[in-house]
Amino acid sequence: MAGLQSAFVKQAFSGDSLVLRATQRGNQPPPERSLGLAFIQAPHLGNAKKGIADEPFALEAREFLRRKTVGKPIRFVVHYKTGGGREYGSVYLGPKETTDEISVMLVHEGWAKVSDHARNQAHRSDTSDVEAQLIERLLDEEEFAKRSRRGMWNDKAPKSRPRLTNFDLDPERFLAQHRGKELRATIENVRDATTLRVMLHLPSSHQMITMMLAGVKAPMVRTNVPGMPDIIEQYGDEAKFNVEIRLLQQDVKVRLEGLPQGTSANGTFVGSVIHDKGNIAEFLVSSSYAKVVDWSAALLEGGAARLRALERTAKAKRVRVWHGFEGPLVQGTGETFDATV
Predict the structure, then answer these.
(1) Is residue 250 within 8 Å of residue 190, measured between CB atoms?
(2) I need a labelling partner for 83 at 20 to 30 A (CA). Which of 1, 33, 184, 292 fits?
(3) Under 8 Å CB-to-CB from 154, ≥6 apart: which residues?
(4) Given pLDDT bands bounded at 50, 70 and 90, which one contains residue 326?
């Protein structure tokens, strides 16, 4: 197909919307663009600040798209743009346009339906043959999903666990209930390299929390916060990007270790990310993207000896957050560690 471009999927905003990234070159964040999936509509996720609840099956649709695409290379083509410049197109997970189109998969599984725009577009004279054929395929898949009662068309499906974006519980009681346990979670947003928005998959709900990584602190990144100035400390963007490409919208386990000092923010905890590819806190310290923080390091299960050893090695390299370091290097055990995520 003419006009195909390559990218990596950074994030699935909803069941029909993606954020794409150009190919990575070095440690700096590459350009990004948003892309809506053309000719389909998935159930909408809500907005707690505006009092809008999730539509039924919205999280299931988003999760299907997330697991299929996030962190993976894709090919895409833009079919049309709105007056505001919003792009809509097709995304292909593999080499075949006939079988690897993600919108077709979503409609086939019942997590999206054909949009009214597509139904109106199908018979217009300015619709290309490729687009008309795609819309026809989507309509056929929608009929299949309806007959098979898949996804949103299953009127007997069990009720979904609610997605709770606000934290309305007692934080100390919540911590006491879950401290030290390995909880299933998804990293929903990376505010900066050591401050994460995490969705905990609990038995009765999907609970959103903010989690500060125990034992470490990276340069701050704060943007688009109403009433507060933007702050991007040196190496902050680079550190954030390196966490995003490893953890953003990935399934992990987290362990809550404590509550932060000097903050009344409800729903903010101190904890660790458990991932089979490595320890993100150790990666940040060993790569000179973060420094060890005494008060939260004391909360770590097993102590912070490993982090401190990695920090000594990082100081000796005098790069990134240690680029101007001139203090004495405390001698350790002589051990070194290789940490990857």
Answers:
(1) no
(2) 1
(3) 110
(4) confident
pLDDT tens per residue, range 251-274: 999 999 999 987 667 899 999 999
Q: Are 221 and 237 in contact (CB under 8 A)?
A: yes
Q: Classify residue 303 by its DSSP letter.
A: -
Q: Give the span between the Cα atoms of 254 and 269, in whole angstroms.
A: 11
Residue 85 near residue 78, CB atoms below 8 Å: no
* CA 232/CA 274 separation, integer angstroms: 27
Reduced to 3 states (helix: H, G, I; strand: E, B; else coil), residue 92 is strand
For residue range 177-235, what is the model confidence (pLDDT) as tens digits?
999 999 999 999 999 999 999 999 999 999 999 999 999 999 999 988 888 889 999 99
Nearest CA among 210, 244, 237, 209 for reference residue 221:
237
Q: With bands split at pLDDT 50, 70 and 90, how would you rate the model's confidence at 334?
A: very low
Coil, strand, or helix at residue 138? helix
pLDDT of residue 259: 95
Cα 148 to Cα 150: distance, rounded to the nearest angstrom? 5
CB 21 within 8 A of CB 71: no
- Position 330, amino acid: V
Q: Which residues have CB under 8 Å from 188's CB, separation 6+?
A: 197, 198, 199, 208, 249
DSSP 8-state assignment for residue 247:
H
> Do residues 299 and 311 make contact, with C-beta atoms less than 8 angstroms apart?
no
CA angle 222, 19, 13 (to 5 degrees): 80
The tens digit of pLDDT for each residue in 124-171 reads 878 888 899 999 999 999 999 999 999 999 999 888 899 999 999 999
42 neighbors 15 (Cβ within 8 angstroms): yes
- Phi and psi for 60 in degrees, rounded to 5? -60, -40
Residue from 109, 108, 79 nearest 91 by CA: 79
Residue 226 to residue 271: CA distance in whole angstroms? 27
